[in-house]
Design brief:
Shape: globular
CATH topology: Growth Hormone, Chain: A
InterPro entries: H+-coupled_symporters, MFS, MFS_dom, MFS_trans_sf
Subcellular location: Cell membrane
Number of domains: 1
Protein name: MFS transporter
Number of helices: 23
Structural class: mainly alpha
Number of strands: 0
Order of helices and strands: HHHHHHHHHHHHHHHHHHHHHHH
Radius of gyration: 22 Å
Largest sheet: none
Main location: membrane
CATH class: Mainly Alpha
Distance between the termini: 30 Å
Helix content: over 70%
CATH superfamily: MFS general substrate transporter like domains
Organism: Cupriavidus basilensis
CATH architecture: Up-down Bundle
Length: 462
């Protein structure tokens, strides 16, 4: 019985390449259209709507991330004793933020395992609710002056719940969208999903800056800091309501109809039969985490402290890079669908290495905004890592596979990258470019090795 259960967990394969496998090859190298293929290349209105509501989660995820970081000094004043040194309040506030970040893999495993069992749609809405409710709660929490030690403990609880939900949000959106849209538009759709994260970051920073300018520093510190959390959380709940009207993915419906859902805990099946894919996808996800932190977070502090550039100039350049990243994500996805995944990913990764060496080389303050924006645009290449993850796991385990590999890299490597870079550049400033470049090279090698493990998104397509 056990052997029979295992054989039903994944669609049967033979020594001869199936039509689904041929279509997988075509998605990696779109210049070749398989004989007899009827794969659509245009998206229907329903598929566009699915993509649209999926991007709402990405926007909200990074919106919440940015506003917490920007408001950390004010949050520390409200949730810790007034006589505590300012630096210690800041450290403890960021420690609470980091706790929610580090619990992401746990949330990813739990939510993704459930999603592979009961369906993508249910988790698609639930993860956003789980993120929105504690966000509203943070905006309503009493401070240390009102409830003492209970204030930071409640803040920690809210951050932990947010971390659990974030672990399942983006992987769930990637899985949901990939099983709805045409395979030959997967790159563009992943690029748009990735761009939504940048949109959320821009909205988050813009809302904090705008409110501060409108209310003034005193009012912002008194009550205004609560507004971005409450408004963002309400919009998150509205987005979750829209997700309830989305349809379950055709792939999951076919797996359920054929009784081919996983018969064991998806995480166990993943570890038993897909270890090479896990290792390679974690390595590729590490590139995404390092580039995100090393290109869009670390340079601001580096150019201000190490190069002595004016803060206003550096922050303006960072904003330009964030806008360029949004465009770069979409461009990388479109190029992937046109030229092929491996070719686009390889060229993009090595172009990013060249851009990093150029940006951190002999640079004047006047040249920083342009160079930073160009590197930000090229860094959109990392959005193609999502396509690689999606294609690396069978449909029965796809949600879990994406969640485990992406969140593990984001929590462990992405969370420590700014710290490692800060220590490395003290020994040699060249590490600012060498460190992310190293991950780019390793990711390209891993992408080539991962090609042999590719899976069709819809194994039942004809």
């Amino acid at each position: 019985m056990r052997a029979d259960a295992r054989t039903r967990q994944e669609p049967p394969t033979t020594g001869r390449q199936t039509m689904a496998e041929t279509r997988a090859d075509a998605a990696l190298d779109p210049g070749v259209v398989p004989a007899g293929s009827r794969e659509p290349t245009t998206m229907t209105l329903a598929q566009v709507k699915v993509l649209g509501i999926a991007t709402l989660g990405g926007i909200f995820e990074f919106y919440e991330f940015i506003i917490f970081i920007y408001l950390a000094p004010i949050i520390g004043q409200h949730f810790f004793p007034a006589d505590m040194p300012a630096w210690l309040r800041q450290v403890q506030t960021l420690g609470i933020f980091a706790a929610g970040y580090l619990i992401r893999p746990v949330g990813g495993v739990i939510l993704a395992n459930v999603g592979d069992f009961i369906g993508r749609k249910r988790m698609f809405a639930f993860t956003l609710i789980l993120l929105a409710v504690p966000t509203i709660a943070i905006g309503c929490l009493p401070g240390y002056a009102q409830i003492g030690i209970g204030a930071p403990l409640l803040l920690l609880l809210c951050r932990m719940v947010q971390g659990l939900s974030i672990g399942g949000e983006l992987p769930g959106a990637l899985c949901f969208v990939s099983e709805h849209v045409p395979e030959r538009r997967l790159g563009l759709c992943c690029g748009i999903l990735s761009a939504s994260l940048g949109v959320g970051a821009v909205l988050g920073s813009g809302s904090v800056a705008g409110l501060t300018a409108w209310l003034g520093k005193a009012a912002m510190s008194d009550y205004g800091w609560r507004i971005p959390f409450i408004v963002g959380g309400i919009l998150g709940l509205a987005s979750a309501q829209l997700r309830r009207y989305a349809h379950e993915t055709p792939v999951f419906l076919q797996m359920r109809a054929r009784n081919e859902l996983s018969r064991q805990v998806p995480m166990r099946g993943l570890m038993e039969r897909h270890r090479p894919e896990i290792v390679l996808c974690v390595i590729i996800s590490c590139m995404t985490a390092v580039v995100t932190a090393g290109v869009h977070l670390f340079p601001a502090g580096y150019f201000i402290t190490s190069r002595q550039f004016e803060p206003a100039l550096v922050y303006r350049a960072q904003f330009y890079a964030a806008l360029a990243l949004i465009a770069g994500d979409v461009a990388a996805g479109w190029l992937c669908d046109y030229f092929g995944l491996r070719r686009t990913f390889t060229v993009g990764a090595f172009s990013l290495i060249a851009g990093l060496l150029w940006m951190y080389g002999d640079i004047s303050p006047e040249a920083l905004p342009l160079r930073y924006a160009i590197v930000g645009f090229i860094s959109g290449t990392v959005s193609l890592s999502f396509v690689l993850l999606i294609r690396s796991f069978p449909a029965q385990l796809r949600y879990t596979g994406i969640a485990v590999t992406y969140n593990l890299a984001a929590a462990v490597i992405g969370g420590t990258t700014p710290l490692f870079l800060a220590m490395l550049v003290r020994a040699n400033s060249g590490w600012a470019a060498w460190y992310p470049s190293l991950f780019c090279v390793v990711a390209v090698i891993s992408a080539f090795l991962l090609h042999r493990y590719r899976k069709p998104i819809n194994p039942y397509a004809v």
